[in-house]
Specification:
Elements lengths: L21 E2 L5 E5 L4 H6 L6 H12 L4 H4 E5 L13 H18 L3 E5 L1 H8 L5 H4 L4 E3 L2 E6 L2 H4 L10 H21 L1
Bound molecules: uracil.
């Protein structure tokens, strides 16, 4: 007789899982994205799908050691249905958890990757193209808005002035600042 399977339909596993963070919890640099996608939901880790691959490539090119120098998380900790954008209410509800996570990791510098992170942390609803690459001091900590890797995936070129090139410049600036802070 074949043994009955405990969960032949996998229905119980269709609940989105909690995706908290990855990387070094003692890192001095933190990157905050939007919300987990399909691959992140499967693995329970942020930025492990296509966006994450591009992010890793850019980090390497900018000379940042992702595993040791970075902690990565999202504003929203569960994948929104059908990958839709998080609502203003969801961002609001998630903010206290994100703030707690920032307090616990206590990074010196924070990269806000995309409009959702910009809105959640600085309350700014648009204008990432203008604000990217500029440090913003908030509650005694320095935040830099940067483009989201899923936006960067739309432009493959790294020619001067393209979104990927600008993001590389921003990541190099973050690295420069990080090293400057460790000297002072
Ligand atoms: N996009 C995000 O904002 N976060 C992830 O973890 C994956 C894709």
């Amino acid at each position: 007789m074949t043994k009955p399977q405990r969960n032949p339909t996998n229905l119980g596993q269709q609940k989105p899982r909690l995706v908290v963070g990855r990387g070094n919890p003692n890192a001095r640099l933190m990157l905050i994205g939007e919300a987990p996608g399909a691959e992140e939901d499967v693995q329970g880790l942020p930025f492990v799908g296509r966006s994450g691959q591009l992010l890793s490539e850019l980090m390497i090119e900018a000379g940042l050691d992702e595993q040791h120098e970075l902690y990565i998380c999202n504003v929203i900790k569960c994948r929104p249905p059908n990958n839709r954008k998080p609502t203003a209410k969801e961002i609001e509800i998630s903010r206290p958890w994100l703030k707690l996570q920032i307090e616990l990791i206590d990074p010196e510098l924070v990269l806000l990757s995309g409009a959702t992170a910009l809105q959640a942390m600085l309350g700014i609803r648009s204008g990432i193209s203008k604000l990217r690459g500029q440090w913003q001091n908030h509650d005694g900590r320095d935040f830099m808005p940067v483009f989201h890797p899923s936006y960067l995936l739309r432009f493959r070129s790294r020619e001067v002035g393209t979104p990927q090139d600008l993001t590389l410049q921003d990541l190099r600036e973050a690295r420069r600042r990080l090293h400057l802070l460790s000297e002072s």
